[in-house]
Amino acid sequence: MSTEKKEKIVESLQDGLSRCSLGVLTDYRGLTVAEMTALRRELRKAGIEYRVVKNSLARIAARESGKDDLADSFEGPIAIAFDYSESQVVAKVITDYIRDTKSVLNIKGGWLDERVLNQAEVETLAKLPSKQVLIAQVMAGMQSPIYGLVNVLAGPIRGMVGILQARIKQLEGA
């Protein structure tokens, strides 16, 4: 491979590493071409870029993008899944693909912003609910005490209304 081509690859990887908020490193050994194509298709649907990288070039790109800790993760055959959105979709898509297809694909680790993640952390990240679900849960948690307070304050009024309605029925019957 020519030096110019290597420089372009390093530059492209460096750009991906610096723009990407969450990335997952996978060991693709044992995947057939059809399985790799199916994985790429699933990732592409979710807007995720998946690239097989040369370790030496990836290490250089990681160091140049300020992710020195990540540079040590490039051992053996590695493919990187880049997620440029602000979510954990990449981890979820890959773990779902592995679970659904019983694939031999292995998650080796990843990174979240400036933090390097191990395999267990990536899998935990995949199990988290989406941002919208978390916001809904927080909002429900904030509204719950308010609903409880309104219910308690309305209790005596409901009791008084019940007594008055019973008295009205009693007077109507008499």
Brief summary:
This protein is α+β, with helices and mostly antiparallel strands.
How are the SSEs placed, and which strands pair?
Elements: H1 3-19, E1 22-27, H2 33-45, E2 48-53, H3 55-64, H4 68-71, E3 78-83, H5 89-101, E4 106-112, E5 115-117, H6 119-127, H7 131-173
Helix pairs in contact: 1-3, 5-6
Low-confidence stretches: none
CATH topology of the largest domain: Alpha-Beta Plaits
Strand content: 15-25%
**Strand arrangement in the largest pleated sheet:** 2-3-1-4-5
Q: How many DSSP H or I helices?
A: 7
Would you identify the CATH H-level superfamily of the largest domain? Ribosomal protein L10, N-terminal RNA-binding domain
**What separation lies between the terminal Cα atoms?**
103 Å
Shape: elongated
Kindly describe this structure.
The chain is of the alpha+beta class and 174 residues long. The chain folds into two domains: 3-128, 2-Layer Sandwich (Alpha-Beta Plaits), CATH 3.30.70; 129-174. 63% of the residues lie in helices and 16% in strands. The protein is built from seven helices and five strands. The chain has helices at 3-19, 33-45, 55-64, 68-71, 89-101, 119-127, 131-173; strands spanning 22-27, 48-53, 78-83, 106-112, 115-117. Strands 2-3-1-4-5 form a five-stranded antiparallel β-sheet. Strand 4 (106-112) and strand 5 (115-117) form a beta hairpin. Helix 1 packs across helix 3 and helix 5 crosses helix 6. The longest helix has 43 residues, at 131-173. The protein starts with a helix and ends with a helix. 22% of the residues are buried. The mean pLDDT is 84.
